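Posting here for the record, re: iron/sulfur cluster.
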Amino acid sequence: MTNPIGDLEEAGCLFVIGSNTTEAHPVAAIRIKRAVKERGAKLIVANPKRITLAKLADVWLRQRPGTDVALLNGLAKIILDEGLADEEFIKERTEDFDAWKASLAEFTPENVSRITGVPVADLYRAARLYAQPKHNGSSIVYAMGITQHHTGTDNVFAVANLAMVTGNIGKTGAGVNPLRGQNNVQGACDMGCLPDVFTGYQKVNNAEAGAKFQQAWGVELPETPGLTMPEMIGAAHAGQIRAMYIMGENPVLSEPDANHVVNTLKQLDFLVVQDIFLTETARLANVVLPGVSFAEKDGTFTNTERRVQLVRKALEPIGDSMPDWQIICALARAISRKLGLAAQQFEFASPAAIMDELARLTPSYGGISHARLEEVDSLQWPCPDASHPGTPILHVGKFSRGLGKFTPLKFKSPAEMPDEVYPLVLTTGRKLYHYHTGTMTRRVAGLESLAPEERVEINPVDAEELDVCSGDFVKIASRRGEVTARAAVTDRTPIGVVFMTFHYAESAANILTNTALDPMSKMPEVKVCAVRVERIAGTLAGASAGGSRIGLS
Amino acid sequence: MGKITLKFNDKEVQGESGMTVLEVARSGGLYIPTLCAEPDLKPYGGCRLCLVEIEKMRGLLTACTTPARDGMIVKLDTPYVQRIRRQVVELIVSDHPSDCLMCPRDPHCPRFNVCLRDDVVSPRCVVCPRNGTCELQQIVEFVGLKEMRYRLAHRETDLDTSNHFFYRDHDKCILCTRCVRVCEEVQGVAAIDLGYRGRHARIVTALDGPLAGSNCESCGQCMARCPVGAIVVKNYRGEPQREVKTVCPYCGVGCSLYLQIKDEKIIGVRGDRAGAANRGSLCVKGQFGHEFVNHADRLTTPLIKKNGEFVEADWHEAIELVATKLVENRGKFAGLSSAKCTNEENYLFQKFARGVMGTNNVDHCART
Ligand code: SF4
Ligand code: SF4
Ligand code: SF4
Ligand code: SF4
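Prediction output follows.
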């Protein structure tokens, strides 16, 4: 996020796109609701689903799944045509404006309306609200609904273009604010658990950065970027990757085309999985190493607003399990000895000492230490030195790259469109009561009883055609596989679209999803794929909605 | 904002214009009893305990709803204030299960004592989970209420046990509406409201049905705010022996919270009001989703697969095996780190992949 979570309350207008905030980021949603109810902010929601926030919205844009670039470009065009752009910001702080402006020509409201299914009048209303916030600025909030597409990078550029054309960057109540899914996704990226960068996004193929890390770690380092997760699966399938070490992730449920992932992992010569439970992925391993939960170790997490906070040990590790940092160190030392490398590179007295090392090598974390966090509670990076107070709002007065760059974008349809055989679009998301692949939440009895099973949401119109009632069992099939689950007939989900979560191993939506990758981010398009739905035997007697087609909303 | 100065009894306290009399008093470290006021909720003026007299203003005023003005002279405990305040408490207690509250033996009775002065086991402090942490008990002690002049039949309504994590005991509710206000003003859910009138007043859902059938999201923030034993966690396991401040393990909001520990188990969670991301709020996962930590399915020892079955192993054997296998496959290796692990662990993971395994094949499930 360019702006802090608390800052959402300061916005005069909030534009929430591709985020079902009340389900996936409930406490961030609180700020949005407060901004609207207590501070009179305007709210624009763009989501194919009628999410809870849509009820609160001044305008709800129900775009077709996968048409975000067209929608965002269309809004930008209206803003320009109506003279609502922030000319001064564009002149002072951006580049490539003219080329971008020219690229918008085809995105007339009528064209955009045809592509997205959003009425022209709503496009105008949304554009005007966004460009003229009641106070402070306009804030765009988005989540995986923007990024999990084969056009994910384009979508993100389109969001940035819209924020720049209205000057909504680098000030209170404005910004471009992605909500990250997992507690420490931000941190894992910051720490360089990405194939092309060291910590703090220092490129592995940058000679200076390479030299710095080689010197610090006392080893030769590879300069060519490595493989992303989906590419690893591909390479493993092709036999180029023979061994994997998976720590605290459950790709069997979280990655698209799950059957393919399982088969590939089974083919490996050696798989080691480190986790706190015997997950679906761990079952495939040759060796399973027991790590510990967040409650049994010290360290830090970095949340979606770049805020680094201390995680403190509250309990001793259970049984013979060991904090993950100690396991990595033990393994690294054992291998270092076999290879004749310096094992003391992995001798640390505590996580605080690890933080000290990484802070020395990472400019944006330079001023962060456990001792300092004990004092000030939290710090938002960039925080280059020990006297720096942290950076709540990014790009104030100047972009980190200098000038903000407008990126011309073309509309591309989703990689897999519905057809005769697979006539419906499947889109995936989250539920309030569960988290990710359910490894943790499905072991909390109360949460499990609140949401014990998958409920595939189907619009009443499609349900009528398929002869499906709420509570019926249905089979959902795509080109990659099929799953069964119970149906929930609701007009929250639009006609032609079905919705599933990925929390349930027994109805694993990712068996169905598409691996089509965004060429830049390598993000798979799990938000859109084509499926077929049919009712199967096993209707429960007296199904909860009493057999009615509408219910459970 | 302008600075203002008020005088409380004989003490001068500085505040900012826009504050209430109660806020200025508290910022100066002065105690005014309250049951309905909460710093982050809108003033309600419902419990009427914060009564004060202010020079040049008529009658008794509720400090929580009176805007502070420069030069106000506030009297906190005139005989008049004390008398009326005591009556207010008496009224609150009159339909409360008050047997222990006024009982002279109270200090001698341990928790969950079976009372010998009563022939039926009725609801009362010794059998209430909030005994000892109850704000009403503190207020009764503060005003020095020792005997009751009137006693209304208490309400004896059913418990609402429909929620999975906590129950509501309407009998103990003092109608401070903190739960209603936190649900609406902070969580933005508005699942509950004050319903009915007079003696029949109570906190209800939209159709006065059980909480579980309403739009309640089970965030438990009403429970966290209740001053008495009217909203209580199910499966109550006593008071925590210690609290450890940490961060929620679920989504990217990163809510700051305290884990409440007793006998080396997590027995509860308390949102951190100073937390920058959440200011005390939590969702249902952060508030109630900690059971997995002590779950019986936790892996407690390394496992090695032999002939298709996992067998328990010791750390030395497991690490040696992994090390040997990874060395054999150096050059054909890829690592997946974790968005659930700490920064320090992620740093080490990529250092290991790059520095030891010699590859940039390192990623995590960032894209899901
Ligand atoms: S709520 Fe307080 S006063 Fe009432 S029974 Fe419980 S401890 Fe006693
Ligand atoms: S649990 Fe949360 S949503 Fe439910 S009534 Fe209490 S505060 Fe409201
Ligand atoms: S349930 Fe608790 S918080 Fe709610 S009104 Fe009653 S006493 Fe107050
Ligand atoms: S309490 Fe809820 S909103 Fe806060 S970090 Fe945890 S899961 Fe996210």
